[in-house]
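Work package 3, deliverable 3.1, input record:
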Amino acid sequence: MDSISTRNKVNKIITYLVLIIFSIIMLVPFVWMILTALKTNQEAISVDPFFIFPHNGWHFENFATVWKSYNFVTLYKNTILFIIFRVICACLTATMAGYAFGRLEFPGKKLMFSLVLIQMMIPAQIFVIPQYLMVSKLHLLNTTAGLVFPGLVTAFGTYLLKTGYQSLPKDLEEAAAIDGCNIGQTFLFIMLPLTRSSMVSLGIFTALFAFKDLMWPMIVCTNASTTTLSAGLAKMQGQYGSDYPAMMASAVLAIVPMIVIYIIFQKQFVEGIATSGGKL
Amino acid sequence: MAKIKMTPSQKRQAIWGWAFILPTMLGLIVLNYYPAINTVYQSLCKTGDFGKGNIFVGLNNYKAVLGSGEMWQSLWNTVKYAIIEVPLGIVIALVLAVLLQNKLAGKTIFRTLFFLPMVCAPAAVAMVWKWLYNQQFGLLNNIFHTNVAWISDPRIAWISVGIIGVWSIIGYNMVLFIGGLQEIPKDYYEAAQIDGASGIRQFFSITVPLLSPTTFFIVQTRIIGALTVFDLMFMVMDKTNLALNKTQSIVYLFYTYAFTNGNRGYGAAIVMVLVVFIMIVTFFLQKLEKKIVFYN
């Protein structure tokens, strides 16, 4: 008995040790980013390994400086609009199509659904050049509409919502039909509210994807005043790459909002990603 | 076409069904299927001056792309990135997921932490790592008293970029593994414990085979994800970096030609090479799936 409990103790210690080591590895870049953001450039490039914390006061004004000089208000606004419209479009079109594919019978359904599945297997890079040319022809370069454009519909979301609708009990429609609902009413008032968790998954997935996207915003929004946080960072790095505290302060400002949202809605984030299993 | 007799109820379903899928199907055709075909067409064209007008040039772009050492080097760089990111990202994530199955204090905190990079913009992540890797002033060289050119030495830059990829993806893989682990019935482990199987033995005899569908799913999505990597290379490697051509990914090369240089025909041909390459990889993965994945 005694040897088993010692073994368990040793196991537990090793488990904690591994988890703590990895936690440190995960944390160091974040900590270093924040610490650098609070230093002067002179301090940031001092080559002393024990120079971890800023010596001459914490330079919170670095944040205010980059906030103004890189126009973060505009970047936030552009990013938020981009995310909101992407999420609305994805949820709206995918829930309708998902319901039809999951619960209704109609001619051509199999063929249409295979188009949805095939889209998910094609690497998205093949769409980019023509999508860009379309946005350019529609005079939507440097607009929110142009940013949202490729995400008006979503094959992945359709698939996700279809699975959600399929998992609902069979007799729901019958009960609704007895109560005199037509198909539209059944969908809107009975089925739709029951797939809330799939919708939340899709919403989180879409929002994260949009937030993290770099190439598309760089292509369609070349103006600093119309671009998103991600693409804005790329621009800043190109222009002011050697002002390290400014760069790190910008990076902090770019990621903090999403981190706060994530910490508040942690459960939904983790479950959303685990159940959707989408490729980010 | 012969007329199919439908009952009123079937007719109603058909009308509603099509009405509901119409936006999505139209969107997929306009935004995805037409562009896919258009890219194939563009790959056969030369982009006219000032990006205007396409001149059909047949397979010229392909000849140029396939004969370009730069393209093959980029493809090889991409594969090398995948060789680092996919296995390391998966093995570490699996270990962490299994460890987090135990009764532990602060379980949620660990999980939250490991997942954190997933909610950060890769552009920001890459900027921070670039700073950590900085040869003169970076934290890594400072701590270890080294003078390694992490991202400008062509021999190691690809590894440095791969490490950022691993760091970024661990949490995502881990969350998927935790989901998969929860689906394994607990009684298997109880039975094994009664038979006196050690923890390691249980891991290899129960966890690994029963988790194989999840593992395979992650392997597949990560391989394709790694083969289309762009953000990390773009943000970490400056255009003047000497190691750029030994690290840039194929999607980076595509971006450079199609959008920085405005040579869309050539860019389209690069994408086609990538698509064919991914299709070949997917084909072999499917074959592999039948052999090694254990479906209950």
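The two ends of chain A are 48 Å apart (CA to CA).
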